[in-house]
DNA sequence: CTTGAAAAAAAATTAGA
DNA sequence: TCTAATTTTTTTTCAAG
């Protein structure tokens, strides 16, 4: 992992489709070398995966919410069960287990407010371990990325 | 946009590197047809972009925080200026402008607590428009994706 | 590391139903 | 629209310096 690797990573985390030749032009290293490094970065799982980012709005998913969830009593099995449910919930884009007032903070993407209500009913109401949850509705998705700060 | 497109999208939002041939095997359509559809989905920006997802930990970024930020007075120029700063801040992975107690909710990824302190000093303290902010430190990144719920 | 060549694979294009 | 064949591009692998 040297500075050239970091430069490559900085480029591909914004655009994974650019060719090794283009990257070569940008950072001054032969296309072959770029490819070898990319392979290493993939094999070592520094590059976890390469994904397509879809436009939620164009898929009819027009509502995003950030939800803070508090559990009743925090025992391990309840915690693990909740994590598993969140991982399997298609509406849940992200789930963080956190310190602070709430236990979990979620990013939820759904069709509309009605679909959000359905989501809360399925996952929150009727789940006695959940003591409360607080919803913040997103008015503007100012910045949405999975980018990591890459510097020397 | 038919059901086949949705199936393709569901596949590529998890793995953008699989070939048209593989997708073809999975959903039963010729590789050429897959490619044409993918091109359309890219051109229409339903597929916004294709990116490499990096492992923050392996890049020395071991701390994630969710931050709720409240502004003093919400006037448009202050709002826009803050949005712009967040978009340009490399530590800020995500920024949402929301209803509720806070005005903004951020996901911040940094090296460690010290780097987080540096971040708050640069972006929050000494910014009079910010009335307060509340930090929740992430103990477990239970689910981190940009996936959209795709169903028929 | 580089360049160059070659092979394999994938993507883009074209033509025909 | 789709499929099938062709061409182009890209990736991968290899050898030599």
UniProtKB/TrEMBL annotation, chains A, B:
Signal peptide range in chain numbering: none
Keywords: DNA-binding, Transcription, Transcription regulation
Any Pfam family matching the protein: HTH_AsnC-type
Domain of life: Bacteria
Organism from which the protein derives: Pseudohalocynthiibacter aestuariivivens
Official protein name in the record: Lrp/AsnC family transcriptional regulator
InterPro entries: ArsR-like_HTH, AsnC-type_HTH_dom, Dimeric_a/b-barrel, Tscrpt_reg_AsnC-like, Tscrpt_reg_AsnC/Lrp_C, WH-like_DNA-bd_sf, WH_DNA-bd_sf
Record-annotated HTH asnC-type domain positions: 1-62
